[in-house]
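Anyone opening a protein record will find just a pair of labelled lines. A complete record is shown below as an example.
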Amino acid sequence: MQLDFFPSRSLTVYLAKMFIVRIFAVLVMLVLVLMALDLLSATGKILTPEGNGQGEILKYAGLRIPQLISRFLPYSVLLATLITLVTLNQNSEVVAMKAAGLSAHQVLAPLLLTAAIVAAFSFAFNERVVTRANSTLKAWEAAEYGPIPEETGIRSNVYLTDGSNILTAETLTGTGESITLDSVTWYARGPGGIIREQIKASGARYAGPGWTLENPVRFDVGSAETEELETMVVGEDLTPAQIDLQSVDPDGLSFWELSDTIDAFDAVGRRTSEMRASWWHRISGPLSAFLMPLLGSIAAFGLARSGQLFVRAVIGMALGFAYFVVDNAALAMGSFGGYPPFLAAWAPFFLFLLVGETVLIRTEE
């Protein structure tokens, strides 16, 4: 067994190029198919506002494609792993490499290196592109694909509490005292959480204290009467600083912005388990690409002896998809406080890292 972890330079480059081409091909195929299916259901909603046309459809596709790339890049690495290893095995290239004295880990080393580079690219792509696409698309969807303010810090589906009362808004723009809320609903609740009145308004601005509703319409639950008001101020105890904290969308924040937000929540004693789990998953999520060659390696070795190429490929695929199922379940448990945030984000990664290594060592090493 060689002491060098990687095989020769030419073989490393050959395997890495083969692997990266297949990752790109599978990713393009998945994104095109899923984007086409998504447009079938979304095009009608996009074209509903007056004036929307092909440009808005292309805009939607431009915002949706980064989300699809981010979500399905690890799946692409898994499928590319299986395609690459099955091809090498069918052509007896794995047998030739092992006959030359390479261990199973050395055969996989170029694929692991390529997957690590893909994971680093995925992290950078998520931070620079996907977070911005998430925040913009959510704000556009909240505006029902109509015009949205050309400002930074747009958030959608805002839910705020002022004691027992509730203030909701479809979109929020700006920060501090310049915050603007659109499509606002105020729920005034009595004892036991029973809603006494509902007030809808086209928007709201900070009145210092309170929030001035624009064109409010009040519905009294007790009398079932509707009344149009000239102006109304609600939420006098709800400050812009509280809104900045309560309306945070982790998916729309970068890694460093989310870290600062967690610190701000800690400073005021707010619950941060969901955001901490998301923060840790910003690292462990892209790293899942590194696991895929290891989990799919069962498709490369031992096939010539057993003659069960298809069965081993299915086992490799099952291991990969099992990781994604366990990862999503653990992240959900972390968001609800069932698991500590660090454990929720990293336990599936280390568990399947050990599973993959165990299978590889016991069967091939």
